[in-house]
Amino acid sequence: MGRRFSLLFILVVFFTLAFVGGIVAQSYFSFTKGNDWRGYSELAKTTYIRGFLDAMGFVKYGNDRGETQSVVRRWVSVLDCMSSRKITLGQTYAVVSKWMNDNPDKWDYEMSIIMLGSLAGMCP
Q1: Phi/psi zone of residue 52: left (φ > 0), alpha (ψ -120 to 50 degrees), beta?
Q2: pLDDT in the model for residue 118
Q3: Which domain holds residue 41?
């Protein structure tokens, strides 16, 4: 469970950084290391921390409903698919942006739920 939890955390933070330009759009998924973080702008560092807190909230949301394992399994499945298909951050951004534009009635949802819903369509 610890590794899956870590993957969920990293995924949320990774995509959050992509939205503020902290990582080049052509990059594929990779784990952020402490030395990487140290090189980020203050905005990117703050956004990374915000992404971590969002990830923790998403895990708590699943846990409160007894669904943590199924939520984490779904995220891991999406992450594995994206990695094997070498989906770039630019492509990911385009998918999430399109989903947001197509679903204004869901803008009040937590971004972690929006991310999973939009990216799951890419990797069914």
Answers
A1: alpha
A2: 87
A3: 2-120
